[in-house]
Amino acid sequence: HPAALPGSSQACPEDVGILALEVYFPAQYVEQAELERYDGVEAGKYTRGLGQQQMGFCAAHEDINSLCLTVVQRLVERGRLSWDAIGRLEVGTETVIDKSKAVKTVLMELFRDSGNSDVEGIDTTNACYGGTASLFNAAAWVESSAWDGRYAVVVCGDIAVYATGNARPTGGAGAIAMLVGPNAPLVLERGLRGTHMEHAYDFYKPDLASEYPVVDGPLSIQCYLRALDRCYAVYRRKAESQRQQGERCRRGPFTLDDFKFLIFHTPFCKLVQKSVGRLLLNDFLAAPNPDTSGGLYKGLQPFRGVKLEDTYTSKEVEKAFQAASQEIFNQKTKPSLLLSSRNGNMYTPSMYGCLASLLAQCSAQDLAGSRIGAFSYGSGLAARGRSSPLDKLLSSLADLPARLDARKRVAPQDFAEIMKRREETHHLANHTPHGSHTDLFPGTWYLERVDDKYRRQYARNSGGAKMPFSQLLTAAPSPGESLGGQFLMDKSGEATREGSALLGALPGPWGPWPDRTSVRHQRLQRPLHPEQTVLGAMGQSLEGQRLRGRD
């Protein structure tokens, strides 16, 4: 089949979404229970109260650039990509170390030896929304007339640190890179996306000389839950509208029963558990005649007349619906909290860390034929996956629990000292980071030095040995060795026979890739295969699609 060319009005790529997903988190952590004792707070305040077990944090040698360099390099290496197979690179982050120079420009150093500077995209910054906005931008590019047949890469990365006090245990750090293109195992659905935006001073960073945010905790939680309410309402309305237009629609309101799994942006795990209860409250109030004498809504009759806007601070409502939704939480959400509970809040990558955690612990059979709801505070996405290519994506994340176990535990007093030193050296010129980079994971990029003009120099360690840019990039696979066999095209845009053959034969951690030489897509809603997963997202933006069997 002909490959899609820019400006083609006859076809657009089919099943655009996430082809591969790579996760990076720091190599050291602090135990939350030990941090409770060190901070002199009551036992369980961080562990039971917040639902957090451990918190990852960055060493002095790591910054937002090094995190993103590491995760992009790892995505390319494990996927056997060539650097010239990437035509767009988007970065979502709120960790700003330069008011003008984007993180994306630093990442372009990885492309240098390939000669590929024709890479669109830039940084997107708006608290935790930037990652999902970047994903939508990348997908829109692939689906647009500007697409030139290459992949897009989306990077979400942040370092979440707080001043000493109650907020510090809700920190974390990490980065996630996603490969975006056609025929993906996780597909961004068309037709279901709801958005909620508003102005609020709940969380912001007005002091550019500090990494620490200004936070109004109670207001921030209220904003989070209000966004969840409004986006779920928009999502439900659009989903029900699609049902009515479908030929074989399932009658009745859209409810949590329509999701097999639910994943959320996770500032701390306890808020996610409350959010599941919040969604159940929405279903309860929207139900025409809920049965309160038994079943899911048993005993909830006293709350039948409440208004959502009056319940954000009601502990009675929160407790009742959290208890009623406990089994839903255990089945649909708890498996996704592995990374959040053990590494903490990563900001822009947070919800994608939950997606990675879910994929790392579920089989393709668990996910096939189901819908996954995803709430990203600030936005959302939807996806589906055929069971075969989904297997390959799952296998690439199978080592996530082992990687968490391989980290180094740091005593709370040492953690506090590292945070103090980080505060003192933040944005310091003519500076060499304290300590050794050899404690980082092998293959991690690190900050080597900041010169007197604030220019940052990076290197990559491999088993403790420093590797400069030039040595690292000479071994990059050629286009013919990458998984992007579709890029082996003749001048007419037809995929060459050799290029087509590569598509199903390339080795790698994800195994052979599906055929990408056919990219024709009808924009009308199509029947889906019974063994496909739908991931519908809820947030300040929401996307999803009805799942139905093949005609």
From TrEMBL:
GO molecular function annotation: hydroxymethylglutaryl-CoA synthase activity
GO biological process terms on file: acetyl-CoA metabolic process; cholesterol biosynthetic process; farnesyl diphosphate biosynthetic process, mevalonate pathway
Binding locations of CoA: N166, S220, K270, K274
EC annotation from Swiss-Prot or TrEMBL: 2.3.3.10
Catalysis: reaction(s): acetoacetyl-CoA + acetyl-CoA + H2O = (3S)-3-hydroxy-3-methylglutaryl-CoA + CoA + H(+)
Pathway(s) where this gene product acts: Metabolic intermediate biosynthesis; (R)-mevalonate biosynthesis; (R)-mevalonate from acetyl-CoA: step 2/3
Predominant location: mitochondrion
PROSITE patterns: HMG_COA_SYNTHASE
InterPro entries listed in its UniProt record: HMG_CoA_synt_AS, HMG_CoA_synt_C_dom, HMG_CoA_synth_N, HMG_CoA_synthase_euk, Thiolase-like
Residue span, Hydroxymethylglutaryl-coenzyme A synthase C-terminal domain: 186-460
Family: Belongs to the thiolase-like superfamily. HMG-CoA synthase family.
Task performed by this protein: Catalyzes the first irreversible step in ketogenesis, condensing acetyl-CoA to acetoacetyl-CoA to form HMG-CoA, which is converted by HMG-CoA reductase (HMGCR) into mevalonate. Catalyzes the condensation of acetyl-CoA with acetoacetyl-CoA to form HMG-CoA.
Subunit structure: Homodimer.
Listed name of the protein: Hydroxymethylglutaryl-CoA synthase
Organism field: Cairina moschata
